[in-house]
Amino acid sequence: MTTPRQRHIVIIGGVAAGMKTACRLRRLDAQAQITVIDRSHNISYGACPLPYYIEGLYDDLSEVRKTPVGVLRDEAFFSKVKGITALTRYDALKIDRDNQQVLVRHLDTGEEQSLNYDQLVMATGNEPILPPLPGIDLDGVLPLKTMEHAARIDELAVNAKHAVIVGGGLIGLEMAEALTERGLQVTLLEMKDQVLATALDFGMASLVHRELVAHGINLRLGEPLLRLEGNGRVARVITANGQYPADLVLVAIGVRPAVKLARDAGLELGPTGAIAVNERMQTSDPAIYAAGDCAESTDRLSGKKVYVPLGSTANKHGRVAANNLCGQAEAFPGILGSLAVRVFNLNVGRTGLTSEDAHLLGLDPVSIIAPSPDIAHVFPGNKPIVIKLTADRSSRKVLGAQIVGPGVMDKRIDIVATLLALGGTVDQLANLDLCYAPPYASAMDALLQAANALRNKLDGLAESLSPCEVKELFDKGEDFIFLDVRAPAEFEEVRIAGGTLVPLGALRNKLQDLPKDRLIVPFCKISLRGYEAQIILQQAGFTKVKYMEGGIAAWPYALEK
Amino acid sequence: MTTPRQRHIVIIGGVAAGMKTACRLRRLDAQAQITVIDRSHNISYGACPLPYYIEGLYDDLSEVRKTPVGVLRDEAFFSKVKGITALTRYDALKIDRDNQQVLVRHLDTGEEQSLNYDQLVMATGNEPILPPLPGIDLDGVLPLKTMEHAARIDELAVNAKHAVIVGGGLIGLEMAEALTERGLQVTLLEMKDQVLATALDFGMASLVHRELVAHGINLRLGEPLLRLEGNGRVARVITANGQYPADLVLVAIGVRPAVKLARDAGLELGPTGAIAVNERMQTSDPAIYAAGDCAESTDRLSGKKVYVPLGSTANKHGRVAANNLCGQAEAFPGILGSLAVRVFNLNVGRTGLTSEDAHLLGLDPVSIIAPSPDIAHVFPGNKPIVIKLTADRSSRKVLGAQIVGPGVMDKRIDIVATLLALGGTVDQLANLDLCYAPPYASAMDALLQAANALRNKLDGLAESLSPCEVKELFDKGEDFIFLDVRAPAEFEEVRIAGGTLVPLGALRNKLQDLPKDRLIVPFCKISLRGYEAQIILQQAGFTKVKYMEGGIAAWPYALEK
């Protein structure tokens, strides 16, 4: 674990991956000199909680730098507790790989010095993408990456009335909530026709759209930003379709890996633009490792290099890098693109491949949309979730899941993520022995119900259409019977235009009223009864029956009330 | 899917497994005649939510028989919607396997008839164990299994002041909460020295004990019930140690499989006393299947036959039985003993093997106790959980987990249950790509932190003692330094007797004050700093250092305030 002479490990970047690497290194190696370089005094902060500071959920911004018992993770903490030297306010200018030196400059004094290293860790993180549009430099236009950004947005939010958020990704959505809660009128601009475009399918994203609109967000999809205007300070944004007042513009269209230093040093970059690493987090230079948001990951399912910068991955990268730096061979197995985001009252999450991803890999993905209460439906406080689950037709391996709803999402995403990591099938999923009591789940958990619904589809027992596919039938003017099999009282309350009411309990007696030569699409609130109706009709000799998956709960379009 | 002539499938028992089997059968087979026999009109009810009815969380007892949209699952529902005949108020008296007939008697008219079957499904459920003690037949002494029991307990609770619950299992604990919330003074008698004796280790159960006592439960452990006294109506219970007033006595010492009918018919019973079935849920008679609480299951990890009657398993049994009855070969893979129970503000759950189970199987289990906040600690509403995670030393396969705490437990138990089903290792667990955002988890989830702590132990990096082992050292009068490395303010607030305060930040400067020849046991609030202290001491040449796992958060004994 220790080396004969005192080796020096230099880590460039002192946030998640850098500090994780440093701390793990120290635990594995008593002797090594460990130096972390960072531009800011604000090292070892959690960036993910910053939107919630702006929302007002905690009052002291430095909380994001504290341990669970309230100790500030500053230079003195790392020195005294961890035996790690943190050189803050230092910029790493250049890596001299031949001589194993990093040239650094103190940002306040301008003083430069060279640090010798035995091994180097790149933990330079990401940099927010700021599109080169007119007005992007105006005051009041900024991304959210650092504590300084958070403090500035918090300050601006005090007097701002109108905010424009550019980008419907994780930060854009979190900030849409945060700024709305702060009392601002928020416009959310997204170039694509949906939010979370790389994470969710359109139908699932549409449920998020509905939530945003319900909370007063001015949601502008498919609307690119053209320029920002104002007199020194931003006043409005101009898009392809119009203009919106803005006292504050959050630019959240994405981040890129911060790789200038690595590229200048001749380290290999991967196809994603991030620093290429092997599974031990080692770069093309064996003396240099990379971890966190500057490094690429491998997708566990596709085997492809991907760039999904997240704090959860950064911590794992750091531990693996440190282990390998200390002779403990460990391979980082890669990621699944697991994500979670709260959007007002919705929990939104996903893991694994989308259908599109799977098709590109030559797989034959089959998906189901299955809504359900998150816990026993008699238990107070139960809330719905809509699950979209995808498996490969021939191998029956689960490929991914997306979940949106007010109910508990993260548990089910994590179960699927665990299954994906181990290559489980939808049949294995359906028979998992999950823990059960009414405060936690239904006797047959929502996820297992979704798995069974998908098995029915794979086995040819269920034939179905997604809500998007049904919408297409309407749009094309297809002739079909859209059979609402709910109770009259439910129909009275809310319904989809074009539906014909035949309550499920009456269906067996109304078979003679239905045509056998036309497509019948039964559905209900969540389409358990819709599926039941399909079975009844098929068993009565109707051959053109496909129930609509997800029912009204997953219908992302307008409803009649 | 269909048979040439109309076959008749008779199902004895119309609750979870029976009705699941019936409904799935109908979906797979349009023609079959399906008859379900039950003694009660109250078919297809959920028993698990009954304690919460008594607690007052919902007002209408029939909710447990309704679909999520409020339709009562009565005889008419099964007939009209499902095409299933439910013969309620019928008792199945005898199975004539040679002639494939079931003799039934109507409980109101006394009329008997024989039903021919092509295939038979035993779904006779369980029966609560009532110990043959004096007074067990007194009015006011009853188990909780049926809706009728729930209604009667609810009625008794209106005027009762004192309740005694016999048995600290799932129902006993749920009812301790329910009756306390109803304003009764509750005494909980448990023969063993801990609640949930087959599910949790003593240390974890002790956290539940603390919660029960904190909510006013008179918890009597290791105290067997001797008799019940009263004049027609129960008035008090007498134990080996004393007597307790009781207007209501809930007997919840366990259930046994209801197998009289099966035994009388000569069907093979397994080592657990439940009906023996193969993995297709087929009994020793190929024409007879069994599902739910009357049937045994196989433990996925040990391969042994086990009896763990739960609604979650009953539903899966029913589906597998129906599939096999319709020619869809499906093997039920068995269970993991996954359990969940809410005890006041605690969430309590477990899955897999305990250390004791694992030892009996010849494995070499290594466990860690690791407390953590359930979500990002800066996020409001985060709550602690204590995780006990066990893996096999040589294979590193995860063997089981127990979690107790106010924070989110079920997500982590279900992740472990998924991993167990697929044979994953603790190393695979530690690198899972779980979904992350501050409202849902820490960047490194509590469970992954526990996995890493266990890896450190398996790898010889961490040496540790459980709180129970430390207590033993104290009890034996061992000479060791119990090193509390928290901050002075934390020490002031709460501490364990016998601890010596040396805050972690000061430790590197106080090494000369500590002896190298005595055992040092560092700990903190959750023992992350305790582990850190162990590393610092070991790296300084101290060889006798073992940190106390779980810290104060997992210390199940008295604390000084």
SSE class of chain A: alpha/beta
How many domains of chain A? The number is 4
Strand order of the largest sheet of chain A: 3-2-1-7-18
User: If you average the pLDDT of chain A, what whole number results?
Assistant: 96
- Can you name the CATH architecture of the largest domain in chain A? 3-Layer(bba) Sandwich
Q: Determine the CATH topology of the largest domain in chain A.
A: FAD/NAD(P)-binding domain
Strand percentage of chain A lies at: 25-35%
CATH class of the largest domain in chain A: Alpha Beta
Give helix % range of chain A.
Answer: 25-40%
Q: What is the overall shape of chain A? A: globular
Gyration radius over CA of chain A: 27 Å
Oligomer classification:
homodimer
Given the structure, what is the number of helices of chain A? 16
What is the CATH homology-level superfamily of the largest domain in chain A? Answer: FAD/NAD(P)-binding domain
Number of strands of chain A: 30
Largest sheet of chain A: 5 strands, parallel
Please give the alpha-carbon distance between the first and last residues of chain A: 69 Å
Largest interface: A-B, 109 and 109 residues
Describe it:
The structure is a homodimer of 561-residue chains. Chain A is of the alpha/beta class. Chain A has four domains: 8-46 and 58-127 and 256-325, FAD/NAD(P)-binding domain; 141-253, FAD/NAD(P)-binding domain (3-Layer(bba) Sandwich), CATH 3.50.50.60; 345-458, Enolase-like, domain 1; 464-554, Rhodanese-like domain (Oxidized Rhodanese, domain 1, 3-Layer(aba) Sandwich). The first copy, chain A, is 27% helix and 25% strand. Chain A has 16 helices and 30 strands. In chain A, strands 3-2-1-7-18 form a five-stranded parallel beta sheet. In chain A, strands 9-16-10-11-12 form a five-stranded parallel beta sheet, covered by helices on one side. In chain A, α1 packs parallel to α8. Chain A is globular. The N and C termini of chain A lie far apart (69 Å).
